[in-house]
Structure prediction request, 233 residues.
Amino acid sequence: MNDLQSFGPNIWTVNGDDVRMFGVLPFTTRMAVVRLETGGVWLHSPVRPTPGRQRAVDRLGPVEHLVAPNKIHSLGIEPWQALYPSAKVWASPEFNTRHPDIAVDAALTNDAQAPWRGEIDHCTIDGHGLLDEVEFLHKPSKTLIVTDLIQKHEVAGETWIWRTVKRMAGVLGEDGGTALDIKLSVRDKAAMRQSVETILSWDFDNLIISHGHCVRGGAKEAVSRAFEWISRT
Ligand SMILES: [Fe+2]
Prediction:
């Protein structure tokens, strides 16, 4: 089985193992993989490595960057760090507060001078009380990469109870969007709206998310709709 799924020029996804949010709620997981112009490989929200996943990534080039896009998504950072000790770890602004034991090379604040700028833009979502998420735009493939702020959990294989919970939370299926608990945890609405406007001003047509359905083509409209709750209030 091929662990890498092509998503466009120099960008792939790799599905990870399912996890249980809050110990019970089933989540599928996914990482995004980009091959930079330098030939180096950039892993976004790495899922746990397996020999198959490692072989697939190795075929692309040397792993140079590991990205923890919010303080919750720490799962695969240390295992990949152990496999590729020279890779740099880039993390969301508050990641180290929650994970002081994980070595981070640089925080992805908006003024961070990341070596991949020009190919990948990034923007931190300000004004949220729980999530310090950093979103990314892979310019060559016009792909927006979002972690938890938009979720579109698969319906297939889901039990009735979890389908109901996820539907009520607003994250079920292709029409999913921002989870209710995330909507209810905004600290500074104006600041968050400004961050979302920055993202919506980017030139993208595709969307990779960590949990659920990705979008190929027409993603600007889908993302605008998913963010209406903050952009139009
Ligand atoms: Fe997540």
The chain has eight helices and 14 strands. The first strand starts at residue 4 and ends at 8. Residues 189-200 form the longest helix (12 residues). Residues 72-73, 147-148, 210-211 surround fe (ii) ion (CB under 6 Å).
